[in-house]
Specification:
Fe cation binds at residues 117, 160, 164. This is Peptide deformylase. Belongs to the polypeptide deformylase family. This protein has 191 residues and is α+β, with helices and mostly antiparallel strands. The chain has one domain: Peptide deformylase (Peptide Deformylase, Alpha-Beta Complex). It has three helices and eight strands; from the N terminus they run ααβββββββαβ. Strands 1-2-3-6-7 form a five-stranded antiparallel sheet. The termini are far apart. 37% of the residues are buried.
């Protein structure tokens, strides 16, 4: 793995809703990544780790995040990072380059407390339906392909971040007339 000093992202670097880049479909990255793009990709994951470290979060006034997409720091590329623990205590720490969902379940899930976003400085009430299971194919920053089969919370996080790369915000999925109304699908359950 190539070692490059990563830049340090703080909340002032996070693009907020209303910025046009959050509504734009991002561009694929080309491999090998430039040193600058490699550093940017790593900095996404470093921000998430720092945001979940109480001491670092307090010191730098960071909001806790589990995922961060490239366009959320103004970078027009198909890259996002995730850092979280799922319901089975499995740790996820990944950087996804040029990610694509290759399959998904028909069953759906939603977070009972709703979703939030580092680019949204307000509470948005409502259910965000997501596929319960997804298979995602992507590349590491080094250009190595990988595929993950995810379910539950992990699948929700991945879909939220992938939406960012397609110019979609989480609240676009909420029923506009009745935020607590769920789609009429065969199976949907809360997480």
């Amino acid at each position: 793995m190539r070692k490059v000093n990563s830049s340090f992202i703080t909340m002032k670097d996070i693009v907020r809703e209303g910025d046009p880049i959050l509504r734009k479909k991002t561009k694929p990255v080309q491999f090998p990544l430039s040193d600058e793009d490699f550093k940017r990709a790593e900095s996404l994951l470093i921000f998430l780790k720092n945001s979940q470290d109480k001491r670092m979060a307090e010191k730098y006034d960071l909001r806790e995040g589990v995922g961060l997409a490239a366009n959320q720091i103004g970078w027009d590329k198909q890259v996002f990072a995730v850092y979280f623990t799922d319901e089975q205590d499995k740790q996820f720490a990944y950087i996804f380059c040029n990610p694509k969902i290759t399959s998904h379940s028909s069953a759906m899930v939603y977070l009972e407390e709703g979703e939030g976003c580092l680019s949204v400085d307000r509470v948005v009430k409502g259910y965000v339906p997501r596929y319960e299971r997804v298979t995602i194919h992507a590349f590491t920053p080094e250009g190595i392909p990988f595929t993950l089969k995810l379910k539950g919370y992990a699948a929700v996080v991945i879909q939220h971040e992938l939406d960012h790369l397609n110019g979609v915000m989480f609240y676009d999925h909420i029923n506009k007339k009745d935020p607590s109304r769920l789609p009429e699908v065969e199976f949907i359950r809360p997480l």
